[in-house]
Records
---
Amino acid sequence: MSKTSLLLAMLASLSIALPVHASDRYRSRPPVMVSPDLQASWVLQLGGVPAQTRGYAAPQRLRQAVPAGRQRIVQQPQQVLRQQPVQQRRVVQQRRVLFPQQPAAQPVAMRPDKPVRTQIEPQFLPQMVQYQTEQKPGTIVIDTRERFLYLVMADGMAKRYGVGVGKPGFEWAGTHKVTAKREWPDWRPPQEMIAREAAKGHFLPAHMPGGPENPLGARALYLGSTLYRIHGTNAPWSIGSGVSSGCIRMRNEDVTDLYERVKVGTKVIVI
């Protein structure tokens, strides 16, 4: 018998022993058992252990290598995230030690050597008061100790204004007349003042045009041939204090009111 005939006879016997039915195609098949060889490392690199091989135990070396590798990949970013806040806190603490917190920059008007109040005390606001004097109505009397300027009125009355006066060492007294009046005057500080302030670290301009920032304020009454004036100010909180270089300071609204009430030639007495 030829080989071909023998093969056909064997197939025929199998078909008789194992009849095939149409419903066999829908039968559940037994699980496919995969060889443990599929646990090789090159298979694991394709995406893990196939579902069919979960029943097999991987070699000890592979079971240890895979989690360790995955742990390094997954946990490394987590460690960085946990360490960043700690490092940031250390940097902040070091900066606090090396660079203590500095106070916010203050405007020139709020320097430590200036009063911190922004409003004058109520007693330095303009008001009518009784004032007994031998001076004629229209005379200006400035009491540098009490920090008041009196414009003498009739019937023993006077209009009183609060003023700022010369600081210690710059006080003066005397009698003069108003020799000039200026609205929004410009300012030319004398050389002595420029040098004195420069020694303190405050540098003054040689000339400043009139305006809200000008230290002479809105109005100025010039006294005799001196460098002293009755003038407004850009620092109204200084009213009631001894802070000037000898001039008499008033609030801008107060000096404007006084400016309208007096004339050139008015007598001014400083006591």
---
Amino acid sequence: MKKTLFLMAILAVVLIAGCSEKAPKVDPTVINSGRIVTVSTIVQGDVTNRMVSETVFSGANAKSITKIETPQGQQEVIQIWVDKKIYNFAALQPFGQSMISPVDWKTTMTSFAKDPQLKDMGVLIGTEEVSGKMCDVYSIDTEQEKAKVWVLKNEGFPILLKSETTVPFQSQTIAQEVTFNIEIPESSFEIPTDVQFQEVSWNEMMGGQAETPVETTN
């Protein structure tokens, strides 16, 4: 089961409230925007890395700011999705990478939780709350991976909110703040004009191990 640094962290959106009696009712189970803050700790041997990621999203657009702390120092990495275009760059750096994605941000984020592999390899062991959100808890025990994952109980937008692994390395990622259907300004997804982006392919961005997420209809 493949995971990337940028897929660890995610979520937030717009709740439209109607004032008139004829205004349509908003379905609170439909997630359109949000904000999520995740904290990750990864231990490999005697080396411990820590990541704090804040993601806001609205529809197909999203922006994640991830602060990475390693024994060598700190780095801040930004990723912006605008529809099916992704921009990656580091803070205070003049260069970055951009690419066309085969799917949009929302599909990418939900693809892991909807992956048949999770159902095949994982055993549903119960339900549990993560930051006030009810999740299905799966246990995975294979030669390649030993883990538990907490997936938001939402058929339309099942986001991974927590994970713990012991094989192939020790890690924990947990969403400490989760808020859905909030107003996210369009300016949050503006592409910086002072960064020069080099166009790369989806496979290059994923380190040569790209798997196209499955397009879903909700």
